[in-house]
Design goal:
The protein is an alpha+beta fold. The chain has four helices and four strands; from the N terminus they run αβαβαββα. The chain has a single domain, classed as 2-Layer Sandwich (Translation Initiation Factor IF3), CATH 3.30.110. The N and C termini lie far apart (about 50 Å).
Amino acid sequence: MPNSDPGGHADAVAHASQIDMAFTGNYRGCIWNAQGLLASQTSKQEAKIRRILQLLEQQDFAIISETHSTLGKSLAIDTRLKARGLSTFWSHGGHRRAGVAIVVRDSFLDSLGGVGAR
């Protein structure tokens, strides 16, 4: 009996449908201009971290602008957020300007299948 799919096209299509696909489920996110998330004053920094945690009670991710972050400052925050099931991705601007952070629930990353939390 001749092979009805000699090039294996059906297998290739089936494999491609399992990988490299855009997420099509439901999600909730927000954007917040923190105006200096990693402020020099610890009291301001604490209030802003509490705000992130509050935002993520109802969201899968938050995009935070004006973080004023550096690698060292972000590492300290990463540890605290990771303990609460959150992953962070940073683009640093400097201790006095710019910077962006994306904070994502690990459970949301897991739902993406294959991306996973780091």
